[in-house]
UniProtKB/TrEMBL annotation:
It comes from the Bacteria. Transmembrane segments: none annotated. Keywords: Cell inner membrane, Cell membrane, Membrane, Protein transport, Signal, Transmembrane, Transmembrane helix, Transport. It comes from Roseisolibacter agri. The keyword Cell membrane applies. Belongs to the TonB family. The keyword DNA-binding does not apply. This is TonB C-terminal domain-containing protein. The lineage of its organism: Bacteria, Pseudomonadati, Gemmatimonadota, Gemmatimonadia, Gemmatimonadales.
């Protein structure tokens, strides 16, 4: 038979273990959320690895029904490029789009783009960029 003090002790032990786990995990969470720099803070901005490859991605992503209808335009995206030159998918945001389908297509393109990462004082850093993606019917 368990007494009320045994139950209280177990609850406190469980709570203490949860707090200890949270404290151990906190430094990793902070490290994972490294600073993101804007263009004015960078010594060297990110650059596309291949403009030709990016153009092919854009052409392939153009929604067929919009191309046939002659609907195009410029989608303005904002996103973070990691230290490895890859776009962080969760950071992609459509700032402006002439149609939702073009915004969605542009997000798909951004996820596949490769960049030379931005640099600050000679070291690769995470960088926030805005990029126009133009769809011409």
């Amino acid at each position: 038979m368990h007494t009320s003090s045994d139950r209280r002790f177990r609850r406190l032990s469980t709570a203490a273990a949860a707090v200890a786990f949270a404290l151990c995990a906190a430094p990793r969470l902070v490290a994972a959320q490294e600073a993101v720099y804007g263009g004015e803070d960078l010594t060297s901005p990110p650059k596309l690895v291949s403009a030709a490859a990016a153009a092919r991605l854009v052409a392939r992503s153009f929604p067929e029904e919009m191309r046939k209808a002659g609907t195009g335009g410029t989608v303005q995206l904002q996103f973070v490029i990691g230290k490895d030159g890859k776009v962080e998918p969760s950071s992609i945001e459509v700032v402006q789009a002439p149609a939702p389908a073009l915004g969605d297509a542009a997000k798909t393109v951004a996820e596949k783009m490769q960049f030379v990462p931005g640099k600050k004082d000679g070291s690769a850093v995470r960088a926030r960029v805005q990029l126009p993606i133009v769809y011409k019917p």
